[in-house]
Amino acid sequence: MKNNILLFGILFLLQVFVLNKVLFYQYIILSPILIILLLYKYQKNSKESLFFSFLIGFLIDIFNDSLGVYALTCLIIVYFRNFWVLKIVGEEKTEEINTMTVHELGILQNTLYAIPIIVLFFSLLSLFESDLFFSINNLLFIIISSFINYIFILLFQYLFFDYTIRDEWR
Amino acid sequence: MRNLIKLISLYNYSITFYLLLLISSYFLITENFVLKTKYFNSSNYIAGSVFSAQSRVSEYFLLKKKNTLLEAENKKLKESLTNIRSINNFIENKQYNFIDAEIINNSVRKKNNYITINKGTKHGIKKGMGVISNLGIVGKVKYVSDNFATIISLLNNSYFVSSLVKNSNTLSSVNWNGNDPKILNLLYVPKHIDIQKGDSVITSSFDTIFPKGILIGEIVSINKDTNSNFYDIDIMSSQNFYNLSMVYVVDNILYQEKKALESDTDEK
């Protein structure tokens, strides 16, 4: 629990002070906040998860001068995630899983679970932040940023998360 | 009543979601000035203090680059000073003061970008003042707290700058379309005016906040095939917003006098 809070703090600070300011090659943003939104434990109809996502989005907005953009995006992402995880993983299995990592879901299920959420995240950011949503620049931004972030999140899980799932779920 | 409570408790997850959705949508789409002012002032206070600490650390790593920039700027200033000295009454007619400031936060990717600087009302910054750097114009002061100010960047969809095409002296307006941070749009240049690629676009001084002649950019494409009476012109911004670190806030000493005179004229 302590480790998770520390990890959350580090990821949040990284997002706010470093990665929010950096646009790599004009198309890539790294969003470590996605790691938190994707990986934390699923709880059915959890109001706390909605409040939590709204709050971290709002905190990012404060440091990013982007009134409402991240609050709205994080909220929609968590609502979609809570629906999507049931479709991909199933209710029975989600109750057994602590964190939605690649170790617990397997690479195929993890890809099916994470990619639509990541794409939705960057699509929403583009939609709320830019006037020209249907432009080639924006589409490239969504596709490239989603791909790079998926790789980044995958690497992060292999580096910082252990195998904790019971064998019967593999 | 009991049924209502039952219904609410049954759907409390969805109700919470829609409630938070409403609040965040309101933040996003509202044009409520009071809310934004309060928000920006509080975010200036919180974020400004943290960003200035962060900026102090990162400054050490940028010192060499900054030195080179300052040397180049110094050279340019010396050259212009030599020119200016030849005008005998320069001192008497001095109209602008410049307050130097350091950028502690800057965004370039959004459609409405803002910059935060480490100077505020304590240092003489006022709302509405123009902001320039050694490469050209940067924006206009939007909100000010005691120690910080937020600048509406030239890379902001809602910001228009009064400009002139240097060779033809044509009055026009510059705006950013929210797409490429290096390309700006030059608006309201009539089709009968002869303009060329490579022409410089400078500030006009009509909006009173910038001195005349500050570089905005250079024309890179001219499209005559539009349905309106005006060209569709792209200009390459002279300013590089990606590595902006030092700016000058322009204090027009005669601003109030000019505004007062103009409003008197309007009333009559």
Oligomerization category of the chains in this entry = heterodimer
Q: Please give the most extensive interface between any two protein chains, plus how many residues each contributes.
A: A-B, 33 and 38 residues
Q: Could you give a short account of the major beta sheet of chain B? A: 6 strands, antiparallel, barrel
Can you summarize the main beta sheet of chain A?
none
- Shape descriptor of chain B reads globular
Could you tell me the number of beta strands of chain A?
0
Topology pattern of chain A, helix = H, strand = E: HHHHHHHH
What CATH calls the topology of the domain at 161-242 in chain B is Thrombin, subunit H
Rg estimate of chain B, integer Å: 23 Å
Mean pLDDT of chain B: 79
Distance between the termini of chain B: 64 Å
Number of helices of chain B: 4
Strand order of the largest sheet of chain B: 1-2-5-4-3-12
Instruction: Compute the number of helices of chain A.
Output: 8
**Average pLDDT figure of chain A:** 79
Estimate the helix proportion of chain B, in percent.
25-40%
Question: Any overview of this molecule?
Answer:
The complex is a heterodimer of chains A (170) and B (268). Chain A has 170 residues and is mainly α. Chain A has one domain. Helices cover 71% and strands 0% of the residues of chain A. Chain A contains 8 helices and no strands. Chain A has helices at 2-18, 33-39, 47-64, 69-88, 91-96, 102-105, 107-129, 136-160. Chain A is globular and about 40 Å long. Chain A starts with a helix and ends in a 10-residue tail after the last helix. With 268 residues, chain B is of the alpha+beta class. Chain B has a domain at 161-242: Beta Barrel (Thrombin, subunit H), CATH 2.40.10.350. In chain B, 35% of the residues lie in helices and 30% in strands. Chain B has helices at residues 2-10, 12-29, 33-85, 255-267; strands at 96-106, 112-117, 130-133, 136-144, 149-156, 161-165, 170-175, 183-187, 200-203, 215-223, 232-237, 246-252. In chain B, a hairpin with a 7-residue loop joins β7 (170-175) and β8. The longest helix of chain B is centred in the first third of the chain and has 53 residues, at 33-85. Chain B starts with a helix and ends with a helix.
